[in-house]
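Appendix C reproduces, verbatim, an entry submitted by the partner laboratory led by Prof. M.T., so that reviewers can inspect both the input and the predicted structure.
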Amino acid sequence: SLKMTLECTTLLLNYKTSNANTFGAADVYVDGKKVTTLNGYLGSAWNNCNVIVAFEDTKRGKHTLEIKMAPGSEGKKFTVLGVAYN
């Protein structure tokens, strides 16, 4: 898994979707709570990037981000292209 602690109000994730079935899904956790599942495989994808808002708050604070493969995708690939925060 990818795990980091950040001080922020907003957290964005940029990830790749591929049309290769070797790519799988990853679960995203913020402060230990699952916020979403990102699918790295899409049959019509062309290695394009996708951006989501994983966390947003009005107060700045320390937050832990963890991205790990979803159940059933443990042996598959997933590409994080970037993490942005403010």
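The longest strand covers residues 48-69. Additional entries are available on request from the coordinating office.
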